[in-house]
Amino acid sequence: MLNLNAELNTFTDKEDQLDFMSDVFAKLKEEVDQVLLFGRSNSPTAERVANLNGNINKNQFFPINYSKEELAVLPAVIANSLRFSDEEQKTEQKPSEPLLRYAKYFADAYLYATGTCENYAIVGAYMLAAEFMDVELSIETLYSDQSHTYIRIHTTPEYIFDFWGDFVCEYTDTLTWNECAGRHYPRNETSYTKIDITFANRNELINLAEDVFTEKNNERRLKILDQVTTLIEKERHYKNKSSEDYDELNTQLGS
Hints:
The protein is α+β, with helices and mostly antiparallel strands. It has 10 helices and 7 strands. Helix content is about 60%, strand content about 15%. The mean pLDDT is about 90.
């Protein structure tokens, strides 16, 4: 198992250090995306599609013509709707204690294969702990025009790993942050940060993962993945049928 600080300190040039951390990020991003298979549940496109689907039964007469980009986020939208409709989720209170709260974010990410920046942060934190024996990190939230959560890695220098936003930068590099995330989450004179939880060593993250990656949860995950696939097929059938009915109506109106 690798030692992150030792690996980072083999480079004396800051650009070389950033290149190394970028390579680490790219490798771990693939692993994070295997857990969060359906992608982000609250990307702008996913939120738009969720709103469209929410209006289907509210005087929605014409079929929705999804763009290719919108079709791509349908699995995340459907999986997220299953999460909200889950009876256990409805009755479960959100834990106030940070470790329990992030354990819940971790479990939800694995079960439903989609999530927000908090889900991405805790899954990414685990992937770092699985890769490096000496990792020390915090999950931190920036409060600006909107709030946004990411990983702060306590190396020298410190780095931000943002698996939701898909970028890495030095912690103090405000220019890169604003280039990558500044549209909605700018660092400016009114923004501030708050550390949600700190993992001083990898053990807590490994223990969290052991509670998440269980046989029971794997069975639940597979069942949910099958549900999403089935619902997408139904959605496609409904859209095709609606389009046929709409074409027939146009023909009738034109005759």
